[in-house]
Amino acid sequence: MTVKLAKTAGFCYGVKRALSTAIEATHKKECSLQTFGPLIHNKQVIDLLRSKNIEPVKKIGDITSEKVLIRAHGVSPEVIDDIKKMGIDILDATCPHVSKAQHIIDEYTRQGFNSIIIGDKGHAEVVGLLGYAQGKGYVVENEEDVDLLPDMEKICVIAQTTQSEEKFDIITEKIKQRWQNAIVYNTICKATSQRQKELTNLAKSVDLMVVVGDCKSANTNRLVELSKETGTPTIHIETAEELDLTLQDALKFKTVGVTAGASTPYWVIRNVVEELEELQRKTNPFLFKVMYKIVRAFTYSHIFLAIGAASLTFVSSKLINIQPLLSNSLISFFYILSMHLLNKYLSLPQDRSLTYGPLKFFTRHEKTLFLLGAVSILGAFFIALRLSIYALALMLLSLIAGIVYSVAIFPKQWTKFIRYRSLKEIPGSKDVFTAIGWVIVVVLLPFFDATKVNTFSLITTAMIVFSLVLSKSILYDLREIEGDITIGRETLPVFMGSKNALTMSNLLLYLAFFLPVLGSWFNLLPPFGILFSIIPIYAVMIESLSKKFNFYHSWSYDICSDSQFVIAGLIGLLI
């Protein structure tokens, strides 16, 4: 059984924006916050917000907070006015596409037009839109509703942003037959249209479709309807726990498509995909299943990444023209392993239901992996102690830096001027400090044992390692950006935006490509250093192929990405 995940599955721009607004407000902790109605139509997200003390209210009279967040669906202008009269601040998270539809109705209402909204009666977005029509608005759900409309002279037609394109076209055609002068605006969100088109194409190419999303979500229910219309067996679930498929089903359905509504959280989708993939693996031969578990364990526990760090230490020593030592590679192995394991332990969300992939694996083996991390740091110190006083001092300095990184070093009073009390809270700091940590043990540690080192070689090698590690961290965070937004983790892609973060990663890879070439050309590195430019090319290739062949969100991507450092070590061995 092959699992195909739709590219458009999950949060749309409006939902991401609304959730980011809510999460950011919880970080600032300036005042109490409630949402007017559920922020989005998804129970898991509402539960997450509740855990952060953000409660939804149904009526204005129920508001007890100092600030109210307007949900993605928007509200009527009367609601806005009533909240303001109460002296309560408003944080508007209305989806920009909904705001556009509101503006159209408001503008034409002022010109004496009547508004026809093609959508679902009683839906939160539609109720809000009707408010802008000032009593001159009508909701049409089907062709029959058009015949029930009163005679009107000037007509403006818009759509609920999550409406079906096909349904919108059919109803507008019926409206135009009755009112030839009707002004029609297709306000359906482009993301919704793309999602629906992709679903239709995907459903026709698979044996089973799984649609993930809240049963109250209009756009999710529309996806279910469209999938069923293709004739493909369709399952609608809210979480992976509702997936009721057997081993016989895995043998019966050769290909399974997965898509999700615009308000479905990333971690919910990932858990559904992983559950399907786990079912698929049960059909594999016993030996294959054992090998899979071993390789996944090595990847998710960061052991393979630590092997990569040891390999990179070996080749870095050769780049700065010193004799590679096994002890230096072992220190790198243990230190990088402990750093990644302990950082993951400290970054686990309080709500373990939010975990998926590597984090879910970590929570299942939490005590074992924490113990492995603790033993690894002791191993790094033990080898450093036996190696030299410089190595031990460097390890102690790294440990102190790690403690300072996590501890609140800025006084609480300073929060009036800066948001952060510790270095850990600075957006993207984890990626930068991780890259610095790699440079310390991979490049600087071997340097202290050398009698004669070219300073330019040292700097060039350090820049190459820093660029590769930081680029890898950014690319990984780009893949996990929706999950990070949901739990409020401010990585570089979350802070900078996906586009800017990708640009930064590409620039780092360009740097990692040209430094070995120029370093070898100007004799800053040994002649074989030019081969090191293969690594950034490999990183770009893996990023592209993983998306093309649909393993971008799997452990396969992780092991392929980590392999770049092992490949670097192999280059060093061959020279």
Please provide a written account of the structure.
The chain folds into 4 domains: 12-95, Rossmann fold (3-Layer(aba) Sandwich), CATH 3.40.50; 98-188, 4-hydroxy-3-methylbut-2-enyl diphosphate reductase, catalytic domain (Cobalt-precorrin-4 Transmethylase, domain 1); 191-283, Cobalt-precorrin-4 Transmethylase, domain 1 (3-Layer(aba) Sandwich); 293-574, Orthogonal Bundle (Farnesyl Diphosphate Synthase), CATH 1.10.600. The protein has a 4-stranded parallel beta sheet, sandwiched between helices. It has a 4-stranded parallel beta sheet with strand order 3-2-4-5, with helices on both faces. Helices cover 59% and strands 9% of the residues. It is elongated, with a radius of gyration of 28 Å. The longest helix has 25 residues, at 455-479. Helix 4 (96-110) runs parallel beside helix 5, helix 13 (303-319) packs across helix 18 and helix 14 packs antiparallel against helix 16. It is built from 24 helices and 12 strands. Strand 10, helix 9 (218-229) and strand 11 (234-237) form a beta-alpha-beta unit. The protein has helices at residues 13-28, 43-51, 77-85, 96-110, 124-132, 143-147, 165-178, 190-204, 218-229, 247-252, 266-281, 286-300, 303-319, 326-346, 357-364, 366-387, 389-406, 429-447, 455-479, 481-487, 492-496, 498-521, 534-548, 555-574, and strands spanning 2-5, 33-36, 55-57, 67-70, 89-92, 114-118, 137-140, 155-159, 183-184, 208-212, 234-237, 255-260. With 575 residues, the protein is α/β, with parallel strands linked by helices.
